[in-house]
Backbone:
């Protein structure tokens, strides 16, 4: 389980550290893919395979399944953690998520997300506001 948030910097070669407590989960490799939320999602190999199997087993019409597979697999990137605990992020993925130098690594249960720091600050505020509204509504019942 991935929990917490960690601030890092992307170096001039597009590398960034993975939090030390997360590194053992990625010993077999790292899959980085774009997220619909304009951040990057980082998967372990087993979780990526599970997601791919779920897509294969879905009841989508064949044409929609092909489009989903192209969108997902063509934009994903396989990498490994180097000896200093870093991964390389291709410029296309950094551009998609508008990652600047300062980023936040966010644990989201079965995966991690990479956010530009300013975008994460805005997203986190929005997410917390929504969570508090849901909690308050549940308490009123």
Residues:
């Amino acid at each position: 389980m991935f929990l917490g948030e960690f601030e890092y910097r992307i170096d001039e070669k597009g590398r960034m550290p993975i939090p030390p407590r997360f590194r053992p989960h990625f010993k077999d490799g790292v899959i980085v893919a774009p997220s619909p939320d304009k951040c990057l999602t980082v998967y372990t190999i087993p979780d990526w395979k599970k997601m791919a199997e779920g897509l294969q087993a879905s009841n989508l019409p064949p044409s929609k399944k092909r489009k989903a597979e192209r969108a997902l697999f063509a934009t994903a990137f396989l990498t490994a953690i180097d000896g200093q605990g870093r991964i390389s992020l291709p410029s296309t993925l950094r551009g998609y998520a508008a990652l600047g130098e300062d980023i936040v690594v966010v644990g989201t249960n079965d995966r991690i997300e990479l956010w530009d720091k300013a975008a994460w600050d805005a997203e986190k505020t929005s997410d917390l506001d929504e969570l508090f509204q849901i909690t308050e509504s549940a308490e009123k019942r």
User: Anything to note?
Assistant: The beta strands are 5-9, 15-17, 30-34, 40-44, 77-79, 86-88, 102-107, 112-116. The chain has a mean pLDDT of 91.
